[in-house]
Amino acid sequence: MPGAHFEAPLVIENKDGWGPIDGTFQYKDMPYQPYSKSDQLGKVADWTGTVYGDKRNNNRYRSQYGVGVGMYQYIHEDDENTFQLVDSTRLPKPAYQKRTRFQQNHFRPQQMQNGRFPTMQKAFVEFATQMALNMDNGWGIVRALVDLFMGKPDGRYLITKDPMKPTLRIYSIPENSFDSEDDASDDDNDQQQN
């Protein structure tokens, strides 16, 4: 089976400059643009169909291939003129905007009057009564725990509180779990001597 036949296209070299030459009439409508005015790099631009496929703009690129100064002029000059470097570093504050490290105390009463510190200032006793912190409530928690453990069999228990949840956990612990080996061996020696 013979391979595909491919004919090499006719390529005419432009000895006087860069880009298409005047004799290539078949490439007049191709959207060829130099990348920049200073760089002699070329690109084929806008093959998406918005400009190249739009028949209303047939003469858009023909005017660019004239002779003279603007022969390969970059069409979108605004792209180069509006380039900005994005810099995320903070600008230093001028001397008149810098704040001292510690605020001076003679400004504090004035700031409290102006409402910059909207904190409530109440006596501790009032605050405690608002939160219902009194001895009856405190003893109520202790009473509830005592009643809970009075209903359980005799033994050792461990109470833990989950720091992320309002949960108390109660674990039953074996009798000899916190005794060290030395204490156990001393107890054995005491029993053997008796």
Automatic annotation (TrEMBL):
Pfam families: eIF-3_zeta. This is Eukaryotic translation initiation factor 3 subunit p66. Keywords: Cytoplasm, Initiation factor, Protein biosynthesis, RNA-binding. Residues 178-194 have a biased composition (Acidic residues). InterPro entries: eIF3d. GO terms for cellular component: eukaryotic translation initiation factor 3 complex. PANTHER family: EUKARYOTIC TRANSLATION INITIATION FACTOR 3 SUBUNIT 7 (PTHR12399), EUKARYOTIC TRANSLATION INITIATION FACTOR 3 SUBUNIT D (PTHR12399:SF0). Residues 174-194 are annotated as: Disordered.
